[in-house]
Amino acid sequence: MSDLAAATKADFPLLSRDVYGKPIVYLDSAATSQKPQAVLDAMDGYYRTVNANVHRGAYHIADIATQAMEEARAKLQHFVGAASPREIIFCRNATEAVNLVAHSWGRTNLREGDAVLLTHMEHHANIVPWHMLAAELDIELRWLPLDNDGRLDLRNLDRLLDGVRLVAFSAMSNVLGTIPPIRRIADAAHERGAVVLLDGAQYVPHVPTDVTELGCDFLAFSGHKMCGPTGIGVLWGREELLEAMPPFMGGGEMILNVTTEGFLPNELPWKFEAGTPAIAEVVGLGAAVDYLSGIGMEAVRRHDTSLTAYALRTLTERHGERLTIHGPAEPAARGGVLSFEYGDVHAHDISQVLDEWAVCVRAGHHCAKPLMRCLGVVATARASVYIYNDTSDIDELSEALDRVGDLFGPQ
Q: According to a count of CB atoms within 10 Å of the terminal CB, is the N or C end of the chain lower?
């Protein structure tokens, strides 16, 4: 067992359970990570001892709730290197964060004939909002293609950027694990006057993140992929951009004043946080940030890279031509996401057989149908690692894949 997995695995209660009489092997953290006891305790503590609404109450526990929420915001600010907590907007998830940018910044700044540049490796969350906006505003969507190694093909980047107002792309592919040259793309976009939105749902939980170093203007990510609860995510944006954007939703909290003639929006960040927020989830996300910060994101990245290298080597050597793993061959160029095919066995059949051996992997198109078409497949199985995984989990996956071969015959 790796040093990091040995130090952390016991912190995650679910990982101590058995499935079908076997110890669970959880390899689906790209979909959602497990939660450490510290996060569960923080949320339970909020509900047991506070459980008051934020910002509007003048009594003691309401003050505590408000303080807890704003302390969590400050933790997120430092976690991604933001200049101010005013730049941290709480959303339900990365999907809502991208939609916020599309509907608030996009509707305000995009005009007929403008272009938005996406890539073929995007999650649907960073595709569908732009299709919706294109249908409404008659803007053009352009696409950065992939090369044969699953990396972005940037040979025509300058041409594709002509007339582009926004570049929106994944900082780490949820299918290929690909980590593109983020700063190179961001700098090229800015030279053309374009704004840059990063989908950081896979990146932020696994890689040290500093928005200034990345060179982006917006960053979206989800709490549930970084040891936090579901139902909470973050949009970071440069303050001057957020200030100029209209509110995304209307209601309580996002206003300074309302009359029968109109309303005056609140200041940042509350302008974009209409209604009662997911307070317990915010508290849980703050605890998750504390947990990951205690480990150190550099250590998380080293662990992921080492375990990914072991997985690529072990699975390829054992299963040979029967197994196809998509994405860059170099572990340093990718995250710990391994999407694979095993002969001509359907991904759902692979997942079902692995489940019988208590190995949890994802199967399907992974909300990336355009990418599946580029790969020439309908679906893949996907194993993804995190801090609590070690080489023994990869070995169990490899053993279970042998059972796939036994059941479906030579591939």
A: N
Q: Name the DSSP class of 105.
A: I
- Closest to 178 (Cα-Cα) out of 197, 195, 154: 154
- Residue 121 · residue 368 · CB < 8 Å: yes
Residue spans of the chain under pLDDT 50: none
Confidence at residue 407, expressed as pLDDT on a 0 to 100 scale: 87
**Which phi-psi region, left, alpha or beta, contains residue 193 (left: φ > 0; alpha: ψ -120 to 50)?**
left
Tell me what pLDDT residue 57 has: 78
205: its two tokens? 């939980």
pLDDT at 1: 56
Give the span between the Cα atoms of 187 and 209, in whole angstroms. Answer: 17
Provide the token pair at 57. Answer: 């109450």
* Cβ-Cβ contacts under 8 Å for 143 (sequence gap 6 or more): 117, 118, 119, 120, 370
Q: N- to C-terminal Cα distance for the chain?
A: 32
Residue pointed to by tokens 């995650």: 12
**Cα dist from 77 to 238, 286, 355, whole Å:** 12, 11, 39
pLDDT score of 174: 98
- Residue ranges and CATH numbers for the domains of the chain are 2-35+296-402 (3.90.1150.10), 40-294 (3.40.640.10)
Question: Which of 165, 171, 67 lies closest to 119, judged by CA?
Answer: 171
Strands 362-364 and 380-384: antiparallel
> What pLDDT was estimated at residue 395?
98
Distance from C-alpha of 23 to C-alpha of 130, rounded to nearest angstrom: 43
**Cα–Cα distance, 152 to 275 (Å, whole number):** 40
Query: Could you give the residue numbers annotated as active site?
Result: 367
